Amino acid sequence: MGMYSLPEFKFPLRRKKKRTGVIASAVFLSIFFGFLAGIVSSGFFYIRIENYLKGLNIEPISQTEEVVNETGYISQNSQEQAIIEAVKKSSPAVVSILIEGVGGGTGFIVSEDGLILTNKHVVFDDDAEYTVFTNNGKKFSAKVLAKDPFQDLAIVKIDQENNVNENGELVVNKFPVLTLGDSDNIERGQTVIAIGNALAEFRNTVSSGLISGLGRRITASGGTYVETLDDVIQTDTAINKGNSGGPLLNLRGEVIGINTAIANNAQSIGFSIPINYAKRDIEQIQETGKIVYPFIGVRYVLVNEEVKEERKLTVNYGVLIVEGDPWQPAITSGSPAEQVGLEEGDIMLSLDGKDITENNSLVKILMRYRAGDEVTLKVLRDNQDMNIVLTLSERFE
Question: Which residues are catalytic?
């Protein structure tokens, strides 16, 4: 009994010790080859995922990029740094426009000799005196050169005629200017920046947000001033009273819009006039000293599905010629429209083959023409189409 008992205890113990080594070796080899396989497979699948994302034009997410500014602040990502740089680049050319005893708005310099672009409603009072404060605190008197007859835009000029030094010599300043971008190439969801004289008190206030809509049509009012604006940019960037006339910038610091209106009964809904509309005004002021538009001479409402149903029309596009208040006739006396016999109730469907729609307004189409150009209007009258040839005249403020 003692003979059997010793081997029963010893052999199992020795065998167990031997098996532990085998198991340990097996576990080690499993871990090693598993790790190796993981590296190979993960690299393989990463390459496949990366190639798949490239096929979708989506870049893999990069690590957080820290940028150290000259102040010592560490920017946490490239977008934040782009905003900071755009603000630094643009702020020197943004000005505050103050109206004596009334309030003020914002503008920005577009030429080195002091041309300023702003809103028409900021400088609406022809009898007021206007003062411009630059970003560095300098004060200048200013005069209104012209107001856009169709858009809420105006051109103001810094007056340097009385800017003399202590020796009585005329000092002509060379002002910083903003770079004008292209508002035809903007997208919903694009990051934008607004700079302005918030509440006519806090100069060069910065806010940032997104483009939340394009091609909007709004009717804006302030006091006795009312204007309908087509094709404006909608943004959720904070735009406050006093921001009117300030720039809406992209991340390159280029102006893509002029901040002009806010929705009072909403939060973070503001509107900007596309900068491409203003480029024409700036060029005309520099070339001729006035803003001139081609003119037809009709008052109208844009036709869409809602107007079609409401007025029982047969089309859902174009513009319906209508009378407004007693002092707003449907056809302007002496205008090209009167000369060719356009009537109230006519629907202008297209101009030179370009359909007039919500996304392609009559004003937008007319901007491609000049006074004196001959155009063909497609007009619907009593459910009959007709073509009317008309020569555009000149309209200016």
Answer: 121, 152, 244
